């Protein structure tokens, strides 16, 4: 099986009548208005929509892939289970993975990696999707002195 593309977005919708995909709020950079927290979970919905196709269109096949990401520190984080792709009935398959957040404890580029299981049962990296995470600490709001009368 062959990976054609993966798009990272906030929400992906497949129309039941037309089978068309709408990718809403495609992501390439995320800004969080807070300071990073050690081991912190960035609570931000994120979806990965992928298209897979048979290597030989005339031969049905199946495959397995998985995802992980690499933090700016170089730490590898596995996300989600291994995912099966069944191309036995159709030549193409779309898969959507949804997450409510990722563990990011510093700003910088996070590389989401897609790997497929090879025939010899090893994992082969086939795609790397960079998303930049920015942390911007909001300035503290001045406190209102309640002893001063308003005019």
Structural summary, described in words:
- The chain has 151 residues and is an all-beta fold.
- The protein has a single domain (2-135), classed as Immunoglobulin-like.
- 0% of the residues lie in helices and 58% in strands.
- β6 and β7 (76-87) form a beta hairpin.
- The mean pLDDT is 88.
Name its key features:
Immunoglobulin-like; 151 residues; 58% strand; mainly beta; five-stranded mixed beta sheet
Biggest sheet statistics: 5 strands, mixed
The structural class is: mainly beta
Helical proportion, percent range: under 10%
**Global Rg:** 21 Å
Q: What is the percentage of strand-forming residues?
A: over 45%
Which runs of at least 5 residues are low in confidence (pLDDT < 50)?
A: none
The CATH class: Mainly Beta
What is the fold named in CATH at topology level? Immunoglobulin-like
Average pLDDT score:
88
Task: Give a quick precis of the structure.
By secondary structure, the protein is an all-beta fold. The protein has strands at residues 2-14, 21-26, 29-32, 41-42, 46-53, 61-70, 76-87, 92-99, 102-103, 108-117, 123-135.
List the helices and strands and how they pair.
Elements: E1 2-14, E2 21-26, E3 29-32, E4 41-42, E5 46-53, E6 61-70, E7 76-87, E8 92-99, E9 102-103, E10 108-117, E11 123-135
Parallel strand pairs: 3-11
Antiparallel strand pairs: 1-2, 1-5, 4-9, 5-8, 6-7, 6-10, 10-11
């Amino acid at each position: 099986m062959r990976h054609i593309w993966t798009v990272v977005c906030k929400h992906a919708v497949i129309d039941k009548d037309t089978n068309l995909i709408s990718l809403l709020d495609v992501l390439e950079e995320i800004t969080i208005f807070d300071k990073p927290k050690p081991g912190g979970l960035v609570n931000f919905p994120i979806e990965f929509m992928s298209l897979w196709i048979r290597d030989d269109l005339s031969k049905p096949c199946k495959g397995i892939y998985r995802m992980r990401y690499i933090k700016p520190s170089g730490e590898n984080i596995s996300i989600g289970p291994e995912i099966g792709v069944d191309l036995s009935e159709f030549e193409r398959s779309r898969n959507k993975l949804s997450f409510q957040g990722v563990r990011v404890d510093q700003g910088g580029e996070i590389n989401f990696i897609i790997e497929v299981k090879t025939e010899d049962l090893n994992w082969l990296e086939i795609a790397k999707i960079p998303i930049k995470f920015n942390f911007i600490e909001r300035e503290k709001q001045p406190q209102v002195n309640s002893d001063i009368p308003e005019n």
